[in-house]
Each structure stands twice: as C-alpha cells, then as structure tokens.
Amino acid sequence: MNTTGSVSFELRNHLSELATLCEKMERVGQALNLSRRCLFEMNLALDELFTNIISYGFQDQSEHFIRVHISADHDVLTVVLEDDGIAFNPVERIPPEIPCTVDECKVGGLGIHLVKNLMDEIVYERRAGTNVLTLKKTIEKS
Amino acid sequence: MDIVEVKQSGVSTFKLQGRLDSNTSQSFEKRLLDAISDGTKNVIIDFKELDYISSAGLRVILKATKTLKRQDGKIMLCSMQDYVKEVFEIAGFDSFLPIVPSLEDAFKAF
What we know:
The structure holds two protein chains of two kinds.
Chain A: E1 6-12, H1 17-32, H2 36-56, E2 65-73, E3 76-83, H3 110-118, E4 121-127, E5 130-138
Antiparallel strand pairs in A: 1-2, 2-3, 3-5, 4-5
Helix pairs in contact in A: 1-2, 2-3
Chain B: E1 2-8, E2 11-20, H1 25-37, E3 42-53, H2 55-70, E4 74-78, H3 82-91, E5 99-100, H4 103-108
Parallel strand pairs in B: 2-3, 3-4, 4-5
Antiparallel strand pairs in B: 1-2
C-alpha cells in the first residue's frame, strides 16, 4: 500500500480478531508513514465500531465476516466497514451528555461518541441487508 | 496486557503495559475491583507503558472510581501519552478524574 493504494481484509465476528485488526492497521500505518497519534485514532475508531458490530449486530450463533476496505488518496484515508448484521446507524445515535461529575457519568454510547470525534466524516448506508459505514480522516504523517 | 501492582505507604499502584481494550479490560477490572474489595482505598493507575485504550478500558476506570467513591477512597491517574489523555478528554472523564503528569505527582495527592 502506498500513498494512493488500498487494502482489503475480513474479520470474523470474534473479539480475538481485534488483534488482527491492530496488526493490519500497524502495516497500514507503516506503509503510509502515519504519526503515532493518527494510527492510534484510526485503531480506536475501528476497534469501537468492530466491537459494537460483534456485540450487538448478530442474533444467531453463526460465523459472520466483517469486511474492511482501507484506501489512501494522498492526505485522506477512507475506511469502509461492511457487515450483514441488524441495521444499525451509528450516525443517528444521540451523543451522551459530557459528564461533570462521576455520578452523572454513564457508559452507554461512549464508543460511538469517540468515533464521531476522531473521524472527519462518517456516512452510513443500508444496502441489500448490509450495513455500510464509510469513514474519512485526514492523514497526519510522522 | 501486563499489570504490575505495587503497594507502598498505603497506596496501590497499578502499572499498565500494552493494550487496554475489550479483550483485556475484564482481567484488569477483576484485579482492580478485587484489590478494592480487599480494602484498598488509595489507587494510582500508571499509564506510562500503556499504548492503547478503548471505551472498554474507560468503563473499568469509571466503575473503579464509582466504587472507590462509595468507600471514601481516592483514585489518581498519571503519566498518560498525549493521545491516551485525549480519549479521556473527549469522553469528558477529565472533568472528574484527576490526571497528573507523573507518578510522583500522583503520590503527592495522598
């Protein structure tokens, strides 16, 4: 993968695949010379979305695959996540209130809140029984 | 993830190494809550060697903070990488959790 290349892979709906996701992102980070912060933010956003999909997306016990397509166009990185789980639009999720005290703080919706803050653009589509989430982020090089 | 627990002058310090994510958060939660239920009231979480945290990790810190508050205990977080600190800020956790630059600063709070 170079500054205008792309890479695709699939992850099984299992938490252990977080390690695979991390490895793949490390390689993308090296190929594009991403800064540690930028790689961390990409990793975090994909981790939160992947964890959400496998935790809430599937109502059967079968194995499912989540497809990840990453492409670079000079200074913009685009990630497309596709899964065949139940329809879920994270863009519509109401953000949690930012807490002032520990008692006010609730954990729900925190992952999606992080994703929205870390990415420049998020577009959700439901296409023929598939959730398609497109994320864009401006690349910060090291 | 590796966790090193050090007890010194009535303060338990948990030094985290590696990644705190959905895979590792459960074992950390158990270590931390077990220590609190065994009577630990003063806790420092040292993030110096922690490369990664997700919302699963934030939830453990929140749960421990709430538990300690009920028992008149205290938690301090220290030595975060700037991008780890940013996650606490986006989540709004920095408004109620003390985050200090070094382990030495964290000890001074007790």
